[in-house]
Design brief:
Blueprint lengths: L1 H10 L23 E2 L6 E5 L2 E8 L5 E6 L4 E7 L1 E2 L14 E10 L2 E8 L3 E10 L13 E9 L2 H5 L32 E6 L15 H18 L3 E4 L9 H11 L3 E6 L11 E6 L6 H16 L14 H27 L4 E9 L11 E5 L6 H8 L1 H30 L1
Parallel strand pairs: 1-6, 11-12, 11-13, 13-16, 14-15
Antiparallel strand pairs: 2-3, 3-10, 4-5, 5-8, 7-8, 9-10, 14-16
This protein binds zinc ion.
Length: 420
């Protein structure tokens, strides 16, 4: 079975297990066939020399699995599985699995990522639909997906890692040869890409009542309304609760030819570290330890969501892009200053250092001024109250709209001057 599985992984085939799995070609989203995760029939436990992951599902689903390195991870993609009501942590505890997360990944698909505590191989993976008349109380029910892992040497592990490629699953890649986007001159409507942070299996910061992913999407929709009414075109990097890799967020903005990108967040930091809105610029050197922690956490969430960053180095490198970068950064700095000024003028709570910098991957478009805005911090009780208040969010959306209009006017005037 191991050899067979390895061959599957090597050729990158979509694994369709069980007798009733649908062919891959017509595996479009079918929410009527939503499979539910059944925690009572699910467990992770030591088995032999390794670890057994058993997932109880209300019905069979097409799935694929593969391994990724740095850190070692097992990625399991399947047709929509509803995990509502169960925290991944509740399955942790057995040796072999260091961390677990799951949730919506792309429309119609869910993902489970198990971070392994070392290099392991998949001994077998099997999805079976049980006879309801079975007497085994542990596995009575509809479908069980079992994955047996066993530690291997680092060399053996690396030989079997990598994202299998298939047209059904692959995300579009940015074109390496796209010329830099021409800066706006005020002649066409401004195009703003709003990036609601996190989503899907990466909820971001969480409290009992709300998640950062939900909050940023809510606010992005509200801000979109404000901007649209001011005559600005708006595109969101995600319209629902799905995972979008950081690189794809940049690609969405570049493909659309955005005039600016505003990434929206409301992270959590240790008590006392952060309160109030904070405007972030890209910089290799973070303003302080908290800023560095935020940037690291966002990249780590991408990694733990099972995104393979290998071979995705700067796809848009080159002299033209270096020139674009040199022109873009001062424009981003002015945008940050105008945004912070407008939020302050509106009388909204700001961080004691309102403009900061850190190495945020989502801000790395060479030719699009990009800003990350922490609307507030979910770790701060006063911030939570404000973020939850629709009236406060309206004032924030107003302040941002005013700032973007003011920046765009000055930016366009400068562009016209430079062109002469
Ligand atoms: Zn965040």
């Amino acid at each position: 079975m191991t050899q067979l599985l390895q061959r599957f992984l090597a050729i990158g085939a979509l694994m369709l297990a069980g007798a009733v799995a649908a062919p891959a070609q017509d595996a479009g989203p079918d929410l009527s066939a939503l499979a539910r995760f059944e925690p009572a029939r699910s467990a992770i436990r030591a088995e032999g020399e390794g670890t057994l992951i058993r997932l109880g599902l209300s019905q069979p689903v097409p799935y694929r699995l593969y391994l990724l390195d740095s850190p070692p991870r097992l990625v399991l993609d399947f047709r929509v599985v509803d995990f509502t009501g169960t925290a991944p942590d509740s399955l942790l505890g057995a040796p072999g699995i260091a961390d677990l997360r799951w949730g919506p990944f792309r429309p119609g698909w869910s993902r489970l990522v198990a971070q392994l505590d070392g290099p392991q191989e998949v001994l077998f993976a099997e999805e079976r639909t049980n006879d309801p008349a079975t007497t085994d109380s542990l596995i009575t029910g509809s479908t069980t997906l079992e994955i047996h892992l066993k530690p291997v040497s680092a060399g053996d592990f690396v030989a079997h890692t990598g994202v299998p490629h298939s047209a059904l699953w692959d995300l579009p890649q940015p074109a390496a040869t796209d010329p830099p986007h021409r800066r706006q001159t005020g002649e066409a409507p401004l195009l703003v890409v709003l990036d609601p942070g996190h989503g899907g299996l990466d909820p971001g910061a969480e409290t009992e009542a709300m998640s950062e992913a939900t909050l940023t999407l809510t606010f992005a929709r509200e801000l979109k309304d404000h901007l649209t009414r001011a005559g600005i075109r708006v595109l969101l990097t995600r319209e629902e609760d799905v995972f979008v890799p950081l690189e794809t967020r940049i690609t969405v903005a570049r493909v659309a030819g955005a005039d600016l990108l505003l990434s929206l967040h409301a992270d959590a930091l240790a008590e006392g570290e952060a309160t109030g809105a904070t405007v972030y610029l890209l910089d290799d050197a973070a303003s302080d330890a908290a800023s560095a922690k935020l940037a690291e956490r966002h990249d780590r969430a991408d990694l733990l969501a099972g995104v393979d960053l290998e071979g995705h180095d700067d796809e848009v490198a080159g002299v033209l892009m270096d020139l674009a970068r040199a022109e873009t950064q001062p424009r981003a700095v002015r945008l940050a200053q105008v945004l912070a000024g407008s939020i302050k003028t509106e009388g909204l709570k700001m961080h004691k250092h309102p403009v900061q910098s850190a190495d945020f991957s989502v801000l790395k478009s060479p030719d699009i001024p990009s800003i990350l805005l922490e609307l507030g911090f979910l770790s701060s009780a006063p911030d939570r109250t404000r973020l939850n208040d629709p009236a406060w969010r309206i004032r924030m959306a107003d302040a941002l709209t005013t700032a973007i209009l003011a920046w765009a006017r000055a930016d366009a005037a400068e562009a016209r001057l430079l062109r002469q």
